[in-house]
Design brief:
- With 179 residues, the chain is mainly β.
- It is 14% helix and 40% strand.
- The longest helix has 15 residues.
- It starts with 8 loop residues before the first strand and ends with a strand.
Length: 179
C-alpha cells in the first residue's frame, strides 16, 4: 500500500477515537467524545490555554464515561483549516502522567519526548521511518525498533545515527539508545 496516507489518531480505550490529524497537521476533534480543557480548579479554559484534557463519551451507552481526566495536557483551538474542517482541534502538550521514562539520574520525563526525534528525522528524510517501537530496558538504556521505508534502506546507518543523536539531545545525553 505505497500510496496510503498515514495519520496520527488520538484516542483512548475508554472513549474510543478523539481526534485525527489532517494533511495540514491539525488534529481535528471527532464527534465520539466531548472534549474539555480544565485548569487545576476544574474551571473551563478558553482556546489556546493549556490544561487537563477531560473527556465525556458520546457513544458508549452501556457504561458512560463522564468528565474523565485521562492525565493528558493540551489545549483546543478553532480554525478554518485548508482541509475543509472548521471545528475544534486539539494540541497535546503532555501525555499521560503515568507514561514516563526514567532517566539515569532517577528523574522522570513523559514518554512522548521520544516521539519528537522520530518526527524530526521523518521531516529531514521525508518520512523514512514507517513504524517504531520503544521500550525501556533499564534507567540508562532504551531499545528502539525501526521499520524504515524501503527506498531508504541504504540510508539506514545514517538514519540510525541521526536518530540516536537526536534522542540523546532531546531525552538525556547519558541515556543509551540501542537501535
Amino acid at each position: 500500500l505505497p500510496n496510503v496516507q498515514i495519520a496520527n489518531m488520538y484516542g483512548t480505550t475508554e472513549t474510543g477515537y478523539i481526534a485525527l490529524t489532517c494533511p495540514h497537521g491539525n488534529m481535528h476533534i471527532l464527534n465520539n467524545s466531548y472534549v474539555e480543557i480544565l485548569d487545576d480548579n476544574n474551571e473551563s479554559l478558553g482556546s489556546y490555554r493549556e490544561g487537563k484534557v477531560i473527556l465525556t463519551s458520546r457513544r458508549n451507552k452501556v457504561m458512560p464515561i463522564i468528565r474523565y481526566d485521562i492525565g493528558d495536557k493540551g489545549y483546543t483551538y478553532k480554525l478554518d483549516c485548508p482541509c475543509g474542517c472548521s471545528g475544534k482541534s486539539i494540541k497535546l502538550t503532555l501525555g499521560r502522567n503515568c507514561d514516563t521514562i526514567i532517566l539515569p539520574d532517577g528523574s522522570e520525563r513523559p514518554c512522548y519526548i521520544l516521539w519528537y526525534p522520530v518526527e524530526k528525522i521523518n521531516a529531514e528524510f521525508e518520512d523514512c521511518i514507517r513504524q517504531y517501537h520503544f521500550y525501556q530496558e533499564n534507567n540508562s538504556k532504551i531499545v528502539v525498533f525501526l521499520y524504515v521505508n524501503e527506498k531508504y534502506r541504504g540510508w539506514r546507518g545514517a538514519i540510525e545515527k541521526r536518530l540516536n543523536d537526536s534522542l540523546r539531545e532531546c531525552v538525556d545525553s547519558k541515556m543509551s539508545f540501542e537501535i
